[in-house]
TrEMBL record:
Record flagged with keyword DNA-binding: yes
Taxonomic superkingdom: Bacteria
Gene3D superfamilies associated with the record: lambda repressor-like DNA-binding domains (1.10.260.40)
Species for this entry: Novacetimonas pomaceti
Record's protein name: Transcriptional regulator
Amino acid sequence: MSHDNGKMQAEALFASGQLYRDIGEIIYDRRTALDWTQVHLAKLARLNVSVIRSIEAGRPVSLETLSALLRVFEIDPRDILPQGAPEGTWFAHLDLVASATQLKKTMKQCSDYNLAIQKLRDIIGNISKTFNLPEIPVRLPIDHYSHSVAFTSGERQDLLEIFGRRIQIFRTLQGATASQIAHKSHVSLTSLSLIEAGLRNPSLETVYRIAEGLSVSVYYLIPGIHDDADLLRSLDMTAWAMSAQSQLEALADLESIIGHLDDIANH
């Protein structure tokens, strides 16, 4: 677990550099057992051969690079990486089965919801025109719902986005802000924000720091063949619902404003 005023477990885990040396040895053993050259492995993993040399020499590795190699060798992260923070079970109270059942019922209301949203857009648009407000910018669909939060082969380009989304999921489920998790993880808020957005490739040590800050096992964050796709999708939907719930306050404010405008119109 994270201790704000003391050393993190992640720091102790990486202090000697032994973990990186162990990873390098495993990659070397797997490669030579298959009679592959470093050049051949680099091509399969779409990496520069100098990166392969560096890893086998026991130097630090990033999440994206490690994941590429795990995918090539079809290695379960749990087979080569220590757990770090204790297995995350604080979210076990969520009744995900019941949530999925309720979701199916709720989805039947989508047509009514879409109609209501369109009417709401028209109302806000008319209010904006009345007061000569600038047009509301068109927003694209949320990108992270265009693909699964679970690992699938051939999705290397999305790996960092998937990793970032998983951080958001566990942070949201705890009701924590990015600033709070950054503080607990001993990483800067800027770094965490970029990682959550899938715009930064973190080192393996940073991955462990964030997992510790979230109080979940690192295995929940690193995409791989060990993923429980159903669990991850359920957690994703739960986190999305929690985020959407917070928007109800804005709708309540809008309802009050519309009521006030209605009063003005009738006088």
